[in-house]
Specification:
With about 230 residues, this protein is an alpha/beta fold. It has 7 helices and 6 strands. It has a 6-stranded mixed beta sheet, sandwiched between helices.
């Protein structure tokens, strides 16, 4: 049985209505490689003088070389994999499916992103970037539903909120999620960010990052959610 850490984050789920596509995503890392990979990220930060929190909002021209190496690290390490769900917020009918509760709908999308990625026979430690919820039981409920669905298959050792400031692998997840959101929303104002988008598209073997991958894609898996839940 292999143990994995799953680092989850989201982008644009409450932001500018002119950018309708929200992204919920996760980076998977073997638990026995975590410390080594965090050390490698710290080395890159030191080399490029890129200290502080790692994330999509920090991709800029003066940090372009650093983020090139961060994406290359993701590409080169077989133990790292990325999955995300992309949804058009304008097409989410929370009134019909979630009794008008958009927060509930948000965590249902988290479930859809995760449940089809967690493989039988493995143990998962799942970490979600902390955010303020109206209902404080949301994390517990998501864990309970996943455990019920995956009983006798995959094991959920924990599912808990964390802060991204001291978790470089969560920061890497944020970079990849941000790149997908940038592409799907048709943004192009930053050359540094476009370069990250293009690099991730090459890793995913896509001519454009603004599309779904095959369902079986292993390294980069992009799920364009059309409103239909999958069991």
């Amino acid at each position: 049985m292999t143990g994995f850490n799953i680092y989850c984050d989201e982008s644009r789920h409450t932001s500018d209505p002119t950018q309708p596509y929200m992204v919920i995503g996760a980076l998977r890392c073997s638990r026995d490689r975590k410390h080594e990979l965090v050390g490698r990220i710290h080395q890159l930060q030191a080399r490029h003088n890129a200290h502080g929190e790692l994330g999509w909002k920090r991709v800029s021209p003066n940090k372009a070389a650093f983020y090139d190496e961060i994406v290359a690290l993701f590409a080169d390490v077989p133990d790292l994999a990325f999955r995300c769900l992309v949804a058009d917020r304008n097409n989410l009918d929370h009134q019909r499916f979630n009794a008008g509760d958009a927060e509930l709908g948000f965590y249902k999308l988290y479930y859809q992103m995760l449940v089809h990625w967690l493989e039988p026979g493995h143990t998962y430690h799942i970490y979600l970037d902390w955010q303020q919820n109206r209902q404080q039981h949301r994390f517990h409920d998501l864990a309970a539903v996943l455990k019920t669905k995956l009983r006798d298959k995959a094991t959920i050792a924990c599912l808990e909120p964390v802060t991204s400031s001291n978790l470089p692998l969560l920061g890497l997840a944020d970079v990849l999620i941000g790149a997908v959101g940038y592409a799907w929303n048709g943004l192009y104002s930053s050359n540094a960010r476009l370069h990250v988008v293009e690099s991730l598209a090459r890793i995913a073997e896509l001519d454009s990052l603004a599309r779904s991958t095959p369902r079986s894609a292993a390294k980069v898996n992009i799920f364009g959610f059309d409103g239909a839940a999958r069991d």
